[in-house]
Amino acid sequence: MLKVNYYYFFFIVFTASLSLSTTRGETHLVGDDEGWTQFPNFTYWAKGKSFHVGDTLVFSYAQELHNVVQVNGTSYEDCIMEPNLGVLQSGNDSITVAEVGQLWYICGVEDHCKNGQKLTIEVLP
Ligand SMILES: *[C@@H]1O[C@H](CO)[C@@H](O)[C@H](O)[C@H]1NC(C)=O
Ligand SMILES: *[C@@H]1O[C@H](CO)[C@@H](O)[C@H](O)[C@H]1NC(C)=O
Ligand SMILES: *[C@@H]1O[C@H](CO)[C@@H](O)[C@H](O)[C@H]1NC(C)=O
Ligand SMILES: [Cu+2]
Predict the structure, then answer these.
(1) pTM of the model
(2) Which atom of ligand 2 is nearest to the CA of 75?
């Protein structure tokens, strides 16, 4: 009986630490309260923040006004939609970053990207 309780105890500890490690990533609300809109400076927003594998980016915006297009570095600089690595358009998009490296997001609507609606982050281990 004692032995059974022992195993049960370790099972609880193990499950608890497992769920801790899977919820450890931070959530970053892109643009804070202003959200994903045209005029915040997202370079400024990202400055001084650190992004790690397992963190979640939340893009919050009016669905009929914006979208989120993942592009590469060249397309980010030039504000072009191709090559397009994925488009999100729910208005409340969560992206959990899975890999180390640079990520680039632009808004693909009209000239929003040229107006500054673009974000690049470096994901650390
Ligand atoms: C946005 O913020 C960055 C970092 O602070 C700064 O270097 C850049 O000049 C700003 N861009 C604009 C358009 O204000
Ligand atoms: C982005 O993709 C285009 C088309 O595949 C390619 O020509 C360009 O070199 C890429 N840029 C970067 C920085 O990877
Ligand atoms: C947006 O999504 C996040 C994460 O999925 C959720 O926690 C939040 O409640 C959602 N917000 C709205 C306004 O739907
Ligand atoms: Cu937009």
Answers:
(1) 0.83
(2) 1
